Amino acid sequence: MRRSAYLFLAVCYVVVPLAFGGNNYLMGLVVSSLIVAGVAVAWALLGNLGGMVSFGHAAFFGVGAYASALLSMKLGVPVLLAIPLAGLIAVLFSVAMLPALRLSGPYFALAILAYAQIFRILATEMEFLTHGSGGISQIPVLPTIAGFDLSSRTGQFLLLLTLLAAFLATYDLIRRSHYGIALRAMHDSEDATRVVGVNSVLLKSWMLFVSAFMTGVIGAVNAHVINFLEPDYAFSGGWSVLPIVAAIFGGYRTVTGPAIGAVVIYLVDQLVFKALVSTGHQIILGSVLALMILFAPDGLLPLLRNALRRMRGGSHA
Amino acid sequence: MLKVENLRAGYGAINVLWDVSLNFPLGELTAIIGPNGAGKSTLLKAVMGLVPTTQGSVSLDGYPLTDRATWDMASLGLALIPEGRMVFRDMTVEENLTMGAFPKPHRAALGRNLERVFGLFPKLRERRRQLAGSLSGGEAQMLAMGRGLMSEPRVLLIDEPSLGLAPVIVREIFDILRGLKQQGVTIVLVEQNTRMALGLADGVYLMRAGRVILAERAAAVDIDRLHDLYFAREGAAGDVADAVFK
Question: Does residue A54 lie within any of the structural domains?
């Protein structure tokens, strides 16, 4: 399965720009879907490995976006350096979340929800830095590297696909390491895991840091893609909710499910549902998600895998 | 010696242990018996740092354990085989055992200890690829014990290993404990099966309602008197004070 995922990515690198590269509108949608996919993978890493359901990833997304915009505009940091730095700054801000790691289940979800709101308010009020609700415009575009223009739609696509591949590889690596086994054990019994020598709080903290870094990086790239930021956009609840929807749709217990789910629902919503019902097309998306949760709670990817297995003649794989 | 002194512990507003003091000499098997709610499990959890203590201390060979985190205990040579097994149900038998050797120094000896545990519990070798959640009660208990042994503990704390198991399995588990004792492992055994525990133990503590009410060498225990104290029968009350100061 892992090999087929990498193969699929490799095909995307070549086929997508060749097939859709000329269509700026379509490539724009693909780029947006990859942004959602990046956050969905980061969310699922914390949710599936760390066992913590977050309703506040908008905080890391917004912090990453603002950090990269301000670093590149006020301090003149090169964009490609500002992006990873923005990821680190998102990690720095996630440290304030650490006390919430002691909470479990709905309490953690509520705490992180409130946390995201604080940042939206801060970004609105700290006008000297963020220009408040007026927003920041003319954020520098992605640079040209060795004659290749990353700010073109195809360039943005290739950069985001590379980041997504790196995120997925990291996620897979953590999951298969002995830390990944320990994290899985923690779902069953955190006490028993601590008894055998796992510092469970530290391990969960690391998952929060990795997730915050990924989300901050994606937020930063998005800022340089759309070149404009305002608090209500950068810290919008949509950045918290859409990745959850995507991850659950795709199968949040799998590594690649959230990424595939994000691309599928975003593109289907924009290209199909929007054409059917121009205003309020989200209602179809909502219905589809409700049906998925009812009939295929494991998500799209496990559903397809099972279907594939059945088609092969029901032999046990 | 694992030493518990004046330990007071509980769950928030509810205090369970009332200033208990117990000694567990190295190389011996000490049994802690007593009725439900006596605080036996809480004592083991308090030693491991899973239950907060409000007073008193725990030390191993004079080295204080009271302020150490639970996840440090494995490296300090303590292992707890918890009440109700607490195996990782969604993981295979082998992954469960691997988790038992999580800290780095133990991970280095993983292969050797895996063989040792499979030697002690051949059933686990047969089921190594099976999910722990699908094991029978006896197999799950063996897995919990195997996981505890993966870190080569100096001190093994075992909470009610016989609970809900068929007599033939219980005997098998007690045979393993006897073997571990002969290898020099210090064992603290919490058990409701008084007779079997006494047959194996060097020292015995009887707990009731969060207090130690009897501390004796196993060989010197009068089983009738022990049962009187255990069930708090009439006429035994007067003996309690004597027993405590022995």
Answer: yes
